[in-house]
Write a structure and sequence with these properties.
266 residues; alpha+beta; 12 strands; binds biotin
């Protein structure tokens, strides 16, 4: 992948490192961070041999098809603000797809983007020493997925019938992220994006199962959640700190933290 100098016009970007192949761009970014690289280092790879997702899952990363990138940042924020940046990233990608390509996406809290109920994007945010890494994977020009993924994953190509220039898409996403990130650094919360985020939230104002992480990691694609006797809540959108506001059957409100649970629509 080759980038023009216009990527450096995005204020947040100070260094771009491109690989043909690596195990995981998050791993590479972490190595650069430990060696003291600059804030705003972006690592991109044409493919990954060990792309990682949340909860120890893998992220399929074939060559020439998707976007696999990790942005290293050194924001002056508390540890408990880091998860908010994941939500900002999801919104930035969703806004870029709408603004530049007229593609509508939904957000599955906290960080997956879906089109027609299938996953198009995953985000893995990691904190290490004095930096954070936002790892973004997007299914762009994939023509097909293997049997284990075809029911749950899709690509921009499969949804629109068009191919996309990944370098341009990356720049467009970073432009949107840049705007959101700088205002977040001033505000230190998500108040200003709550309405937009909730308008894209897949389970907004509907019933959800709340799944503890220990269980999420054991589930495959064939599970039936009804068998687990999980609590059902009504999803009321995100709070300014990025947690999910939920109401139980007795009317009591709780704030659910993305580090502890995941959700599924009932
Ligand atoms: C998820 O779906 O749970 C998150 C997937 C994150 C994948 C991206 S691809 C670029 C970066 N490198 C990785 O190993 N993971 C992230």
């Amino acid at each position: 992948m080759t980038f023009t100098s216009s990527i450096y016009k995005i204020p947040i970007i100070n260094n771009v490192i491109v690989y043909d192949e690596t195990d995981s761009t998050n791993n590479r970014a972490k190595d650069f961070g430990k060696k003291g690289c600059v804030d705003g280092t972006l690592v991109i790879s044409d493919c990954q041999t060990a792309g990682r997702g949340r909860i120890g899952r893998s992220f399929s990363s074939p060559s020439g098809e998707g976007i696999y990138m990790s942005l290293l940042l050194k924001p002056d924020i508390d540890e408990n603000h880091v998860s908010m940046i994941t939500l900002l990233s999801a919104l930035a990608i969703s806004r870029a797809l709408k603004k530049y390509y007229q593609i509508d996406t939904n957000i599955k809290w906290p960080n997956d983007l879906l089109i027609n109920g299938k996953k198009i994007t995953g985000i893995l945010t990691e904190k290490c020493e004095d930096f954070i890494i936002i790892g973004i994977g997007i299914n762009v020009n994939n023509k097909a997925f293997n049997e284990s993924l075809s029911d749950i994953a899709t690509s921009l190509y499969l949804e629109s019938g068009k191919e996309y220039v990944r370098e341009i898409l990356i720049e467009n996403i970073l432009k949107e992220f840049n705007v959101l990130y700088y205002s977040f650094l001033t505000e230190k919360d998500l108040k200003s994006i709550i309405n937009d985020y909730n308008s894209k939230l897949i389970s907004y104002d509907s019933d959800i199962y709340v799944i503890p992480y220990e269980l999420t990691s054991r589930l495959d694609n064939t599970y039936k959640l009804q068998e687990f006797n999980l609590p059902i809540y009504h999803c009321m959108g995100i709070a300014p700190d990025g947690s999910l506001i939920c109401r139980d059957s007795s009317g009591k409100l709780s704030l659910l933290n993305s580090g502890e649970i995941s959700i599924r629509s009932v």
